[in-house]
Amino acid sequence: MPATIALVDDDRNILTSVSMTLEQEGFTVRTYTDGESALQGLLARPADLAVLDIKMPRMDGMELLQRLRQRSAMPVVFLTSKDEEVDELMGLRLGADDYITKPFSQRLLLERIRALLRRNEASRAEGSGTPQGGVIVRGDLVLDETKHTCHWKGTDIQLTVTEFLLVKALAIRPGMVKNRDQLIDAAYGENIYVDDRTIDSHVKRVRKKFREADSDFAQIETLYGIGYRYKES
User: Fold this and answer.
1) What's the rounded Cα separation, in Å, for the pair 26 and 3?
2) Which of 16, 50, 115, 189 has the most crowded CB, counting CB atoms within 10 A?
3) 49-66 burial, b if ≥16 CB within 10 A, otherwise e?
4) Cross-referenced Pfam families, in alphabetical order (predicted)?
């Protein structure tokens, strides 16, 4: 079955041109011109991935992402303008998986979409060599790759695809320091350029989610100027 992509943007020229490109590549595409209609549509008929503009009428991309994250870990790519650096970081902290700056290459967008879909599929498949049939247990942390679930002290932690892969990359080798380049490769794949601040924003988001479940959570440690590591409880 072809993957379904939701495009949400109030610029109809972008919707038309990007839809044509994606459909030519074999994707099923649904388009929405505002956040409110997109929310209703995506809750009724979930997509495999969503591409969201930030500035839209009736409900902007930030609010739409927040509402979607209450119900879904669907991969999300944000479209931002060159002068919206703060919005990029806020989007990542809210749970976006990636962002692309306008004006953008449709080939680049297509590459990012395919990379996210591959990662999403891989994270749900049983990892080769992973103990206990795709389940990673590190103290109070339980990651199930086959179900794409994360539990901390028995509490379900809702992670996006990118967040899940970051936690897995750190937890699979407790105590080992991972620099940002290694985490970028683990979460995004090789040959994908991602700014270092993107990883930092994802880690902050992950910590926030764990601390909402356990205020004492301190397993993901920052080694300033080096990277991050997972401290097994």
Assistant:
1) 8
2) 50
3) bbbbbbebeebbbbebbe
4) Response_reg, Trans_reg_C
Asked if 88 and 44 touch (Cβ cutoff 8 Å), the reply is no
Q: Is 6 a residue whose pLDDT tops 90?
A: yes
Tokens 């991309």 appear where? 61
The Cα–Cα gap between 185 and 166 comes to 10
Report helix angle 85-94 to 196-213, nearest 10: 40
The C-alpha torsion from 177 through 180 and 183 to 187, rounded to 10°, is 160
| Cα-only R_g, the chain | 18
pTM, whole model, 2 decimals? 0.61
Q: Structure tokens of 43?
A: 């809750």
Phi, psi of 85 (to 5 degrees): -60, -40
The DSSP secondary-structure symbol of 158 reads: -
Per-residue pLDDT of 171-222, as tens digits, reads: 988 889 999 888 888 887 765 666 777 888 889 989 999 999 999 999 999 9
Distance CA 211, CA 231 (A): 15
Question: 32 phi and psi, to 5 degrees?
Answer: -140, 145
Are 9 and 35 a contacting pair, CB within 8 Å? no
Beta strand 28-32 with 49-53: parallel, antiparallel or unpaired?
unpaired
Strand-strand pairing, 76-80 and 49-53: parallel
pLDDT (tens digit per residue) in 59-104: 888 899 888 888 887 889 988 875 555 556 666 667 788 888 888 8
Prior bond of 103 cis (ω within 30°):
yes
